[in-house]
Amino acid sequence: MSVKSTPMESDTKWNNLQNLKKLLNDGLITKTEYSVRRNQLIDELTGTSLTTLAASQYKRRRGSSASDNVSNVPAIIPKPPPDFTNFPAEKSIKYTYDLKTRTWTQQEVNLKLDTVPFSRGSLRVVYHMEMEETDKDKDREVVPGEAKNRFVAKISMNPSDNKNTKVYFRDVETQTIAKYYAEKFNQYHPPKKVDFIKACVLELIMREGNPIVGVEKFIPGPYRKHNSNYGYVSDEERNTPQAFSHFSWEASDHTLLVCDIQGVGDLYTDPQIHHISGEGFGKGNLGMAGISKFLQKHRCNAICRYLKLPQLGNKVSDIGTIPTTRLMALNNIQIVTMVQQAGAQLHSQTAVLPVLKRQVVVDSTKEHTRCSRCSIL
Question: What predicted TM-score, i.e. pTM, was given to this entire model?
Answer without folding.
Answer: 0.74
